[in-house]
Write a structure and sequence with these properties.
The protein is of the alpha/beta class and 274 residues long. Helix content is 46%, strand content 10%. It has 13 helices and six strands. The strands form two sheets. The protein has a four-stranded mixed sheet.
Length: 274
């Protein structure tokens, strides 16, 4: 269970945040904006510009939704801090991205496991203005809604290595970030591109499906795409066949320290954990 409690929007969808909460957003926003310059992909930076988020107060969902609906027909849905598998997929399938309306405390300003509103709005929403990426996420939701519990565990790996922690090769020698888990993390923004510790490899769906991960460490493996069509094209009914093949072949050996892996840790949105 999370210690955080989402705030209830008023009848117009607005949330009354405190001065301290808005101040936390300002700290996160301004320091992350400096870090992602030259590191975030062009599509993300374009989406960030389109959303015109405030730098000194937490954005209100109706304002974000006004832009998203115009660009791709998406919107953000306010949810409790935790939601189950089925609800997560249902929202995505209906072009609604779930966002818990709380922000981390100053004590956890550098890292928390729960996806707060900074991660959801700053990390995810800019790319939802991109038609190809937005359609990929919608198709992901539709397939996840129809998938079995076991299949969803493997679908989670696709989400993790793309939407959350994906890299994109925009041009030769121009590796950039598009994953929200990286773009909303001060440490991982630099580490993902500049550290010599992680493995970086071209995205291959079967490899991604067979690669385990941990949610509580800097990632040890990043997958690289060349364009969003790379992931859009794999998100059809064939992905379930690939999942069954991956189950039969088994996982690759983990390249991170062992830790007990729970169902919650294996799926980034089980009860909306990220």
């Amino acid at each position: 269970m999370t210690a955080y409690q989402a705030k209830t929007p008023d009848a117009k969808g607005f949330v009354a945040y405190t001065e301290e909460e808005n101040g936390t957003w300002e700290i996160l926003y301004k320091r992350q904006l400096e870090l992602i310059k030259g590191r975030a992909c062009d599509a993300y930076m374009d989406g960030l510009e389109r959303l015109q988020m405030s730098s000194n107060s937490i954005p209100q969902l109706p304002d974000i939704n006004r832009v998203l609906r115009k660009e791709t027909g998406w919107e953000v849905a306010a949810v409790p801090a935790l939601i189950p598998f089925g609800k997560f997929f249902e929202l995505l399938a209906n072009k609604q991205f779930p966002a818990a309306t709380f922000i981390r405390t100053r004590e956890e300003i550098d890292y928390l496991q729960e996806p707060d509103i900074f991660h959801e709005i700053y990390g995810h929403c800019p790319l939802l203005t991109n038609p190809v990426f937005a359609k990929f996420v919608e198709n992901y939701g539709k397939l996840g809604l129809a998938a079995s519990k076991q299949e969803r565990v493997y679908l989670a790996r696709v989400f993790w290595f793309t939407v959350e922690f994906g890299l994109i090769q925009q041009a030769k020698d121009d590796l950039k970030i598009y994953g929200a888990g990286i773009l909303s993390s001060t440490e991982e923004t630099v580490y993902s591109l500049e550290s010599d510790k992680p493995v970086r490899k071209p995205f291959d769906v079967m490899t991604a499906l067979r690669t385990p991960y941990r949610i509580d460490i800097l990632q040890t493996t990043y997958f690289i795409i060349k364009q969003f069509e790379d992931i859009y094209n794999i998100m059809d009914s064939n992905i379930i066949e690939h999942i069954h093949d991956a189950i039969e072949l088994g996982d690759f050996e983990a390249n991170f320290p062992p830790k007990e892996i729970t169902a919650k840790a294996e799926f980034p949105r089980n009860e909306h954990d990220c």
